[in-house]
Amino acid sequence: MSSMASLKLSSSSPISIPKSSGIVGRRGVSFLFRAEQSPSSSSDHQDKCQRRRVVVTLGVVAPWISLLSKAPASFAAESKKGFMTVSDNKDAYAFVYPFGWQEVVIEGQDKVYKDVIEPLESVSVNLIPTSKQTIKDFGPPKEIAETLVKKVLAPPNQKTTLIDASEQEVDGKTYYQFEFTAQARNYTRHALGVITVFNGKFYTLTTGANERRWEKMKDRLHTVVDSFKITV
């Protein structure tokens, strides 16, 4: 969360916390409170009452500021700038995708988001049932990735190359990540994938872009793959 902007205090100006500071109410309403100076002819009693009102108002808002400043780090991680979050409670997974991509429906895929201008830039999630308990039961990362790339993730008429495959352990769950290219007659798609097994399901997330745009897109695509997690 961004640091809170300094509060400017003056006898005639409002004491406000601008929206840009991120200090807002639960319904998105920013706090604004004002301390107006009593006329010079006012009694000391009126001055004291005015000061009390300012102190009380600050005392009410301060706990909100304190609570918001202690928001868990996981919340910030789930709100990456330039990305949207998908959370599927039914199938217990979540991931992020670049802002601006549109959801499309493709038969056989659980979720698909893609760029409407660059159609090779997309992310998809596929689930199939399995009796295996963990992704390790299928074999090592390179072996499984090569099989998926050649027989499932690319058409048989495309030339595929597995670039890398690795294993990650996150919160007690094992994920295999891999990188590959699939060469068609008129283009080459550079792609990333992640697979795991949980609760009788084999999960596959793949994302990629045209090879000519790989250098521009690779950091965002790695963010997509790294974000994929089982949520229970």
TrEMBL record:
GO function terms (MF aspect): calcium ion binding
Lineage: Eukaryota, Viridiplantae, Streptophyta, Embryophyta, Tracheophyta
GO BP term, example: photosynthesis
One Gene Ontology term, aspect cellular component: thylakoid lumen
Domain of life: Eukaryota
Protein name: PsbP C-terminal domain-containing protein
PANTHER family xrefs: PSBP-LIKE PROTEIN 1, CHLOROPLASTIC, PTHR31407
Domain PsbP C-terminal: 81-230
